[in-house]
């Protein structure tokens, strides 16, 4: 995997992936930025959330669960001192469907956390990561 980060001005950068996608990253005004994009640590947290969500949805679909939506709400604590690394990350999944099996949802979350999500498994080497979930039942139409 390759990526390219191009400095634009002050503390604003454009990140480009090898698949041809781009994202703007910037700092807060008190750090010399203009608040034009996400902070790098926000991007890291979102990347982990997307990685684990990808797994959960894929596992539930392969298990033929009637999933209609999946939202991962993330909360991260950071160290007070530099480097301000993540110290704790909690992922709360809100999985929606009609007749979802709670054991299958729990299994999908656990498999992602322990076996498939490279981002969260890598981060878990230095960060305490916890997960939970809730199921939102939709009515049959």
From TrEMBL:
PANTHER family for this protein: PROTEIN YHFA
Protein name: OsmC family protein
Taxonomic lineage from the root: Bacteria, Pseudomonadati, Pseudomonadota, Betaproteobacteria, Nitrosomonadales
